[in-house]
Amino acid sequence: MNSDFYAAFVIGLMGAGHCLGMCGGVAAAITLGMPGNQTTRRWPYLLCYNTGRIVSYMIAGAIIGGAFAGMASFSGHAMALVSLRLVAALLMILLALYIGQWWSGVSKLEYAGKWLWRYVSPRAKSLLPLKSPLAALPFGALWGWLPCGLVYSTLSWSAVSGSAISGAAVMLAFGLGTLPAMLAVGTMAQQLQKLLRNLYFRRASALLLLIYGVHTGYIAIKQIM
């Protein structure tokens, strides 16, 4: 498997604290009102919600990956993708700084998608309260378009993946990385959040991403030169 997929998975896993802040409340809200609010009754709702969310990520990755691959093929300049990979490497470095809590500027990317969210948000909220687990599927699919700096940064890797299928695969890996935190409930959620928010754990993971970003950028610069 391409190392980009592993990197995308790590971004999703390490960025879970951010995901919990933006989507964790929604994941909790969809289970409210269920008889007894039993943990076993939550799973079908949470699984369908997160499946819908990840499918939206994959659709976005396929669109971005296919579009940029098509443009590079049409123009006959493969170097365009190499230049774009340099941009993706830079975003990876900025994302590593964010995860390591050294600099949070990458979160400003979320402003780029707020115009779309104004139209999507009312449709997502109109599906509440959810009457069945299957109803959580379209709800999650709509919520997957929530403006998120982590998602946008990872989409830059979909853009240089070379095809729609690879672009979707990168976002699938990212989505799977977010799953542990989004599916965790009760005591398990508290323990997982404690680990993911541990400063040493975050910075160790951020350093791995930083090294990968620098390495990728170095290779891209060599190809350009």
TrEMBL record:
Keywords, sorted A to Z: Membrane, Transmembrane, Transmembrane helix
One Pfam family, short name: DsbD_2
Regions that span the bilayer: 6-33, 54-72, 78-99, 133-152, 164-188, 200-221
Domain of life: Bacteria
Location of the Urease accessory protein UreH-like transmembrane domain: 7-214
The name this protein goes by in its record: Cytochrome biogenesis protein
